[in-house]
Amino acid sequence: MDEKETRMQIIKDIEKKRDSRILVYITGDRRGLETRIGMDVFPIFHEHLMRIGKQKRIDLFLYSPGGIAIAGYALVNLVREFCEKFNVIIPFKALSCATLISLGADEIIMTPMGQLSPIDPSVQHPLSPIIQIPGQSTPQLVPINVEDVNAFIDFAKKEIVLKNEESMKKVFEVLGTNIHPLALGAVQRSREQIAFLASNLLRYHINDEEKVKEIVKTITRERFSHDYIIGRREAKNVLGLNIVEPNQELLNDIVSLFNVYSKILELDIPYTPEMYLSDADVTERSFNRAIIESVGLTHVFKTTKEITRVRAQQQGVLTPTIVGYQDRILREGWILDDTI
């Protein structure tokens, strides 16, 4: 049995144990080759769902560091068009936008190492602040984290004890000087939007409006840092989400399947150009960066790069020395791939 047959058998085994159909979505967080949940996946998901057809239960096997919030929201709505019950299986990381997707699930099946996170968004606005990153020629827009802005205002109110109108006006003048007012407006709109999206997704399976409000408040405002990790116990006992702990057989299958995808995407191997060049100064390599898969159908987000070792003659040195590397993307996008 080859690697793909083995992977498909694991998926079928999970489907049998769960009495469901499995849809896999993995976006990679391999350092240097990261991918995120985006709007480009909908025709691909629709193709998979049309092949799967209407089902009583669909389980989304999900691993992702995050992405575009509205894409996650729309993905839940798309999958729910094809099933009575929508569930999420979390082998490891389901952060930010992936957490938002999980809020729309009737059941969240988490392994002991499963992770959720706050869903406070970062806004990258055309008028965001610009910084120059050392080693990069092009200045970069700085994403503005929604809760960072609000934390600054709260700090001014609570710690510096600015209470009157004039002192708070000065706080906003400082913000407006460093962050364009239109970008600040986008931050506030984004905060309201993420709460709206999360509430709508939770209402698919929770009828208690007060519980919905409490979950949204906790996951958007009360965990202080976007990097905060919400484990299985907190997700169940504090947030009150419907967390399902898999039995040992199912857990083994979930972990085995994740390990296969981790190997395909090389998630634990940071990308460095030198490791692919060997004795050559120029090479062409393809990288698997994200996967959407169901039984019998595999789509891969693949990037093909030309990698070049750059040499330059240094004064007093006989042979040219390595001064850096250049990556040039030759091809990139989602492809139907039966080879992995």
Describe this protein's structure.
- This protein has 340 residues and is α/β, with parallel strands linked by helices.
- Among the domains are: 3-117 and 229-269 and 287-297, 2-enoyl-CoA Hydratase, Chain A, domain 1 (Alpha-Beta Complex); 122-189, no CATH class.
- Helix content is 40%, strand content 24%.
- Strand 1 (21-27), helix 2 and strand 2 form a beta-alpha-beta unit.
- Helix 3 runs parallel beside helix 7 and helix 5 packs antiparallel against helix 6 (165-178).
The total of beta strands comes to 12
Task: Give the proportion of residues in helices.
Answer: 40-55%
Radius of gyration: 23 Å
Q: Can you list the strand order of the major beta sheet?
A: 9-4-3-2-1-10-11-12
Instruction: Write down the overall geometry.
Output: flat
How many helices? The count is: 11
Query: Alpha-carbon distance between the termini?
Result: 13 Å
Features:
two-stranded antiparallel sheet; 40% helix; 2-enoyl-CoA Hydratase, Chain A, domain 1; alpha/beta; eight-stranded mixed β-sheet; 11 helices; 340 residues; flat
